[in-house]
Structure formats: structure tokens, C-alpha cells
Amino acid sequence: MQYKSKKNFPKNFLWGASISAYQAEGASSKDGKLASIIDKYQHPEEVANFEVASDFYHHYKEDIKLLAELGLKSFRFSIAWTRIVKEDLLTPNQKGIDFYHNVINECIKYKIEPIVTMYHFDLPYSLDKKGGWKNRETITFFLEYVKIIFKEYGNKVNYWLTINEQNTMILHPGAIGIPESGYLPTKKELYQMNHHLLLAQAQVFKLYQDLKLPGKIGPAVNLTAMYQGTAHPEDAIAAHNWETLRGWSFLDVAVRGKYNYLFETYLHDRDWYPECLPEDELILKAAKPDFIAINYYSTATITASKNDGTDVSARAGDQQIMVGEEGVYRAYDNPYVDKTPYGWVVDPVGLRLTLRKLYDRYQLPILITENGYGSPDELDEEGRINDIERIDYLKRHIEAIQDAITDGVDVFGYQPWSAIDVVSTHQGFNKRYGFIYIDRTDQDLKELKRIKKESFYWYQDVIKHNGVN
Ligand code: BGP
């Protein structure tokens, strides 16, 4: 749709940027921090691990000062569950609690709105040993942790995100990491975990609302619209299959409080439907998020499954090579979109479409919590990072957001990935997303100096003019 004029970004639009605890903080066993599954995953030796990362734990003051200079109105980071509690997973760990008070206070000092993710992939390892999310008891421990962070930070944090990319954790578990044992859960186990995560999330929404805390809360999924590869009607069905199973099946429970019909049929048919207790239906029904957060990177293009044993989803490492799923869908190459150096589809129009579909479906305000361009940035001879491809990527996506706002979609913030360079899960420091370069390599920590990239100055100008430049 084209219009005579475009709407401006809302006056209080939350221009921001994102990081997560395990990818940025480092200090992975300091001040009583417990081990998380991330600390224990198998990791290629030549790639940076998470022990030091960007050392945000020791540089947060310097980093937030730089983010204030960038002009951010908001900053999305996650709290590491493993810093907040002691071994019994119930007793608060004061040093960890203080760290996030300091980070939040530092944001507030610069009038930056903290946007807090409660759980970004880093489950305590001791819970994993007892079955992790397969075990219903994990919900109880999660709620205990959430009670602590609501008590500590509930009056100063206005935007809460429950679980980062639950759909990635369930659909592509190997994309996040492989356990020491090498065992990846079966589909049946994964959908049991999914059910427990959904129950945990629903109870967190309810708890937040019962406590009458002043802010807002929502889920954060990785969402993308699906294109059909050809006009073949079976391709349309396949695209709808995968769009539903990959995105809506998670959000429908989070927002509408019940399983999507197609998802339910798919699970029953394959004998993957989770075990439920009689009270689950009411728990899920009581969930009412205030907004929806999405991480958007790419669209996918889909054709009908060949159903000949070759529609199999790839696992760890090569998680972007998404071949498909038997009897459900098959990935198709889209000749009309670009790709990043890492093969991720670049599709700003797809963001507009994703936002429209999301708003059509739930009519809730939308926060974009991730979007970004991974590249192997290097310092040039003058010690600068001229990341023009990133600028081009962000510019086109910001234009697409403005188009969606003009369409009438209620988008209230944008948190590109990432504020500073962080460890990429599989490519370490070879793949960077930040506005601020962290001077280290996978093998050499150097002095971890912070260097502003060209995109820093560009984004600063975007924010200054509320997206009008
Ligand atoms: C998202 C995750 C982030 C981040 C990002 C980029 O799915 O929520 O934590 O990792 O992807 O991924 P990568 O570093 O693998 O390119």
C-alpha cells in the first residue's frame, strides 16, 4: 500500500538497542554466579566462550555512558537467573542483585528506560541436571526467581519480557548449544518443555498483574512472516503450516490463553501432545500480556514438503540451513531478497508484513526487541569501523517500521541487536552486531577497548531526529 504521506514515529518512541547477559557480561563465575547451561555447553575451542564475553560486568558504567551518548531512550538487557539466587535456587544472592540494581540505576541516571528480559537461554545448570524444563518443578523455581526480581526491580523497570525466543529453544534447540552429553531432546520432550514454559510465562504475567506493579509485561518470540515459494495451492498450505507452527502456536497461548487448533491437531497426530494437569487450562487462560515483543531478522520462503525423507531440519551449527519438516513444509530459496555474509535473508518489507500480521491477529502494541546485521567487522588503518552494510540494513528496516506505523500498526519501540558487540553463539567475535566495537578477538582479549562504529554516529542522528533523517 502506498500513501500520500507517511506518519512520523510516535513522540515517545523507544529507540534502543539490545544485549543478553551471557553474551555480554562475562564474569561467568564471579560474585556467586552459578553455572548455567550455556556455561556447560560443548563449545568449539577456537571460538570465544562466555567467560569474559564483552566484560559488560566490569564495564557497564562506561558502556551505559556510551549508550547515553548514542542517545538511546531505552536499553534491553537480560538478567542472569544464575546471578540472582544461591545454590538452593531460593535464597537471594545479594552481589548479583546489586549488580542489576547498579545497571538499572545507571540507565535511569541517563533517562534510559531499562527493558528487562527475565530469561534469555541461560537456565541454571543444576536444574538442567534434574531434567530442566521437562521437569514441572522448574516452573516453581522460575517463579521463585521472578518473585525476587519483581520485589527488587519491579518499581523501577517499566518494561518486562518473560522468555527470549521460546520458539527457538523448542524448534532449534541445537542452535543455542549442545549439552555435554550431546543429547538433544526428542520432539515429545520438547513439546513437554514448551508446555511448562508456557505455564511458567502465564503465571508470571498473572503474578505481575496481581502485584499491581507500575509497568508492562510481554512475551518475546522470534517472529517472521512466511512466503509461499510458488502459486501452487499446496505451497500456500505449507507456508501456513510453518507460519503457524513456528510463530502463532507460541503466541496464541501467550496472548489468547489456549493452544492453536492446527498446532493441537499436529501434536495429537504425532503423539507429541504434552501431559497436562487439570488446572493447566485455567492457568493459561488467565494470562494477559500488555504488549508483544518480537525478534525479527529474516523471512522464510516455503514450498510443500516432499515427504520423501529429505525434509529434515538441520541441527546445531548450521541452524540457518532450514530444510524443512516431513509432511509440514520445505524451505525454498527466495531470489528477491539479499543475504548477509552469514547467509541470513535480508528482507525489510518482510518486517512490515510481519508487523501487520501480528497486529491483525492480536491488536496489542508491539516492541521490536531484536533486528540486526551480523558481519565480521574489522578496524581499518585509521582505527575505524566503517560498517556501511549495517547502516544500510538498519536504515531499510527503520523505513519498514515507519511504513507499518503508517499502515496503522502500533509499534512503540525498536531495540536492534546489539548495543555493543557481544559473543555470537556459534561464531564468537567473528560475527558482530554492535554499534560499539569491543576490541578483542576470539583468542586475544587485548584491552577490551570500546570503539564507536560509523553506525553509532548514524543511529545517533536517527534518534536525534526521531527517525526523520
Ligand atoms: C537471536 C538471539 C540473540 C542473538 C541473535 C543473533 O536469536 O536471541 O541472543 O544471538 O539471535 O544470533 P547469532 O549471534 O547466532 O548470529
Would you give an account of this structure?
With 469 residues, this protein is of the alpha/beta class. The chain has one domain: Alpha-Beta Barrel (TIM Barrel), CATH 3.20.20.80. Helices cover 39% and strands 14% of the residues. It contains 16 helices and 16 strands. A hairpin with a 5-residue loop joins strand 11 and strand 12. The longest helix is centred in the middle third of the chain and has 24 residues. About 1% of the residues have low confidence. The site of 6-O-phosphono-beta-D-galactopyranose (BGP) has 14 residues, from loops.
Task: Give the SSE map.
Layout: E1 14-15, H1 21-24, H2 37-40, H3 56-70, E2 74-78, H4 81-84, H5 94-109, E3 113-119, H6 125-129, H7 137-153, E4 159-164, H8 166-171, H9 173-176, H10 187-210, E5 216-222, E6 226-228, H11 233-256, H12 261-269, H13 280-285, E7 292-295, E8 300-303, E9 324-325, E10 329-332, E11 338-339, E12 345-346, H14 348-362, E13 366-370, H15 388-407, E14 411-414, E15 436-439, E16 449-452, H16 454-464
Parallel strand pairs: 1-14, 2-3, 3-4, 4-5, 5-7, 6-8, 7-13, 13-14
Antiparallel strand pairs: 8-10, 9-10, 11-12, 15-16
Helix pairs in contact: 3-5, 7-10, 14-15
The structure holds 6-O-phosphono-beta-D-galactopyranose.
